[in-house]
Amino acid sequence: MADIIKEILKEMPAGKISDASFEGANIVLYTKDADFFLDNRGIIKEAVDKFKKRIELRPDPDITMEPEKAEKEIKKLVGKDAGIGNVNFDPQRSMVIIEAEKPGLAIGKQGELLREIRAKTHWVPLVRRTPAIKSKIIDEIRAVLYKESDYRRKFLDKTGHRVYDGWLREKKEEWIRMSFLGGAREVGRSCLFLQTPESRVMLDCGVNVASWDNAYPYLEVPEFNIKQLDAVIITHSHLDHIGFVPYLFKFGYKGPVYMTAPTRDVGSLLLLDYIKIMRAEGKEPIFETEDVKEMVKHTITLDYEEVTDITPDVRITMYNSGHILGSSEVHMHVGNGLHNIVYTGDMKYGRTALLEAANTRFPRVETLIMEATYGGKDNVLPPQREADDKLKNVIKETVERGGKILMPTLGSGRAQEVLVMIESMVRNKELKEIPVYIDGMVWDITAIHTAYPEFLNSTVRKQIFHKDQNPFLSPIFKRVGSKKERKQLIEEKGPCIILATSGMLVGGPSVEYLKNLADNPKNTLIFTCYQGEGSLGQRIQRGQKELIFQEGGKQEMTELKMEVHKLEITAHSDRRQLTNFVYRCSPKPKKVIVNHGENSRCLDLASSLHKMNRIETNAPRDLDSIRLK
């Protein structure tokens, strides 16, 4: 037993605690005394204040009510108005997860119903929102976690021992080194590797979906050894940040992966789709569905501003980065006040139709590692109103000439932003009602958005809480669920909007639509996201008119006659927002490292930030290592 648990048990009354274990960095005590479980007379709070750690008291599984009886009791206590759906029991941890359409009614005033459930059933209740749109992936992820409850408890305990059992390596002096194994002076395959005398931590581990030559991070470097890897932190669910994580599990990694719950859910969906796309293109997938499940089993989800230790000398906190649902900036406190690093991942420093602006306030920050996707001098985007007006006008013009609008989109982020924008225009009578067809993973990811309104901006959150105003439930949105429906949509006459993945026209249904709609000048192609180097989307933006598609082993050529527009709505910060972010960052960083951008943009932003702020800046290349302390 770890020393910290021994010390905590000394503070507990004799005979009251039957078991104690870790859940990651949190400490859980179990009791067979029902009265002590329901009222510990402030003893647990005193221990929390003394040890400055999260300590939770739970009932021993021996004293919990039988699940069948407990479920009936819970439904009776809560009543029908809350719209209770699944009630799932985690017997290893004495917890019951209640899914409700109206979580507030299941919780009761000031948690009154939760206290009643605890008192009557001796289970610890957790209430989760039932997605307004049913989400198969959320159901599957929860099923994996419930099924693996016993394994999860052991895994979380082992993770806690790594944090609290002291140093594995001899410490002679303190130092911090960051290696860039991908995503430096490029967009795609983001992967940073943090080393201290004690810790080995990976920040993001992605793939470059637009390149088969330079698709994966440089994990063959001498400093990286998968057996020594302590933890992986994922900022968000796009494949260029999460796409290589299952590969780590395929090759034996069994440690924790830290991310927000929406990142886990959306990321799992994108990873499973990535396997399908590789197979459809006749390529051998680099990992299998089982490896994605392993990632889910080993994921520890964090809320924004939740502090947790991940190794003996690294503590992290995630903050909203404004990029997509659940995307995070990662604040790392290394050593005992030795150094503080903020890694922005992808970020948007500006409120959007969907999300609040990226956070700029941190407890401490000496080194800032930031993205530069739109970091070049010329990367200044028009105001949001201008982008809205352009979208509205392009849709109107295409509808008037009887054409279809194809919007290739990233499954997560841009698609939902566009849905909210179009729904708002229709609701405010700025646009006539027009069917919006959603194909690919966009529908499933939109369902996940309805499960996590707390991660969205205050406007959309309020709309979701009022079912009749939920923008994602608008009758204009229609799902395309099969190849047959896709074929019908292509052949149907009459204007419509089609949102389909992938956003860069690299695989997915968007390519199928393009192949069939490209030669009609009435139709319009609208790009809504960054087009990676080498992607079909980028080639079209650069003026390519002759498109070659694979059709059953043969190559077919189609002439691009449809109108092409680039809509400047991006989940990334433009040049002005990036420089404002550094200016507003509190406290001011002493060093800024620029990554996740094309070569010239990284160099240009680093140079400008140095001149504007009189601080040290750097734009490393892949395989570079920088000593931070």
Biggest sheet strand line-up: 12-11-10-9-8-7-28
In terms of structural class, how would the helical and strand content be classed? alpha/beta
Number of domains: 4
What is the average of the pLDDT values?
Answer: 93
Terminal-residue CA separation: 34 Å
Count of beta strands: 28
Supply the CATH architecture of the largest domain: 4-Layer Sandwich
Overall shape? globular
CATH secondary-structure class of the largest domain:
Alpha Beta
The largest pleated sheet is described as: 7 strands, mixed
Task: Outline the low-pLDDT stretches.
Answer: none
CATH topology of the largest domain: Metallo-beta-lactamase, Chain A
The CATH homologous superfamily of the largest domain is called: Ribonuclease Z/Hydroxyacylglutathione hydrolase-like
Strand fraction equals: 15-25%
> What fraction, in percent, of the residue positions are helical?
25-40%
The Cα radius of gyration reads 25 Å
Number of helices: 21
Describe this structure in a few short sentences.
With 629 residues, the chain is of the alpha/beta class. The chain contains 21 helices and 28 strands. The protein has four domains: 3-62, GMP Synthetase, Chain A, domain 3 (2-Layer Sandwich); 66-145, GMP Synthetase, Chain A, domain 3, CATH 3.30.300; 174-377 and 572-627, Ribonuclease Z/Hydroxyacylglutathione hydrolase-like (Metallo-beta-lactamase, Chain A, 4-Layer Sandwich); 384-566, Rossmann fold, CATH 3.40.50.
